Amino acid sequence: MSQAPESDDVVRTITQQIEARYGMTLDELRAAATAAPGADPGAASVVRWYGHLADAQEALTRAEDALVEELGRTPGELDDAAMALAHQVNAAVSVRDGRAMVVRYLLDGNAPGNRTAWSAPSRTAALAPAIHATPVARPAATTVPLRGAVR
Question: Is it the case that residue 37 has pLDDT exceeding 60?
Fold first, then answer.
């Protein structure tokens, strides 16, 4: 099984980001999230989505290997089978990258809409309106005489 270096870099980089964020290895974080999933829902979500990311990376690796094997069998112009495998690789890259984005989002406590335990000071502060505004006063309705109206 050959894994492209840039593919490996995506998962490795996210692993490093997770370990830096939580101050423990990924295996330790998995064990802690499994033992007490309600203790830190953000950590449990990161672990769950990291698992999805790892699954997507495995699918991408299998698709790349199948494409390389097909290209080795039929050198030259791409046939329909090779094109179908190339599309599978593209789809697998999109899935992997989407899952990587979710993990990065979950790790970023300052991301818009991310209301994780470490980013929101309190529920009431998170729900309070950002701007206090007063309604604009509208002018009173006026009547306009119609043209040709009898006076």
Answer: yes
Taking every pair of C-alpha atoms in the chain, what is the biggest distance, in angstroms?
95
How many residues can be counted in the chain? 151
* Distance from the Cα of residue 82 to its chain's centroid: 30
- 95 backbone φψ class: left, alpha, beta (φ>0; ψ -120 to 50): alpha
Contact of 54 with 30, CB cutoff 8 Å: no
More confident residue, 27 or 147: 27
Q: Which residue has the tokens 């094109």?
A: 83
**Spatial separation of the C-alpha atoms in residues 24 and 17, rounded to whole Å:** 11
Q: Which of 42, 25, 90, 37 is nearest to 64 (CA)?
A: 90
Confidence (pTM): 0.69
Cα separations in angstroms, 95 against 27, 110, 114 = 24, 24, 21
Task: Provide the token pair at 48.
Answer: 């769950």
Place of tokens 């599978």: 88
